[in-house]
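Researcher: We plan to redesign the surface later, but first we want a full-length starting point. C-alpha cells attached.
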C-alpha cells in the first residue's frame, strides 16, 4: 500500500464530521455507529478516474452491503454536481459535499499535488475503512480505481 499524506493511521479514531450530502441532508459519522463505513475521497465528479472508482464501487454495492459496509464518497464538488454524477451513472450511495474542505483537512487528504510538471493543491485520492466503533480499520492511499471494491473486500476475509 502506498503511503498516505494523511497523518491518520489504522487504529486511530476516525474524525467525526457533519456535512451535507447531495440532497442537502446533514450526515455525520456518528449516525453510522455499528456499521462499517467506506469513506472515499476523490478529486472531482465526472472525471475519468473518479468515474471508474465510483462505478467500480457501485458495481459491487450489493456485495459491500452484504459485508455490512456503507459507502460514502467525498469531494469538494457542490450538491448539484453530485446529483448529476449520481444520476448519470446510477450511483446507489451518497456523496458528501465538502466545498469548504473541512472534511478533507480533518482526514489529511488535501495538499500539494504534481501533474505533468505542474504543482497545485488538490485532493489526494484516499479511502478510509472505518469500523462500527468509529476506528480507522484501514487507509488505502492511491486506490486502484478499476478494482477498488476488490481491494476493500480482500481485507475483510
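Model: Full-length starting sequence:
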Amino acid at each position: 500500500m502506498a503511503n498516505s499524506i494523511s497523518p491518520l493511521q489504522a487504529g486511530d479514531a476516525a474524525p467525526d464530521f457533519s456535512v451535507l450530502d447531495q440532497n442537502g441532508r446533514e450526515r455525520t459519522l456518528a449516525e453510522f455507529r455499528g456499521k462499517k463505513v467506506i469513506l472515499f475521497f476523490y478529486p472531482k465528479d465526472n472525471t475519468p478516474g473518479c468515474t471508474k472508482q465510483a462505478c467500480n464501487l457501485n458495481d459491487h454495492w450489493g456485495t459491500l452491503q452484504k459485508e455490512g459496509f456503507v459507502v460514502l464518497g467525498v469531494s469538494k464538488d457542490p450538491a448539484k454536481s453530485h446529483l448529476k454524477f449520481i444520476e448519470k451513472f446510477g450511483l446507489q450511495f451518497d456523496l458528501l459535499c465538502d466545498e469548504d474542505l473541512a472534511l478533507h483537512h480533518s482526514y489529511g487528504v488535501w495538499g500539494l499535488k504534481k501533474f505533468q510538471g505542474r504543482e497545485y493543491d488538490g485532493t489526494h485520492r484516499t479511502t478510509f475503512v472505518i469500523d462500527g466503533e468509529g476506528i480507522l480499520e484501514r487507509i488505502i492511499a492511491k486506490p486502484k480505481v478499476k478494482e477498488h471494491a476488490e481491494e476493500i473486500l480482500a481485507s475483510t476475509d
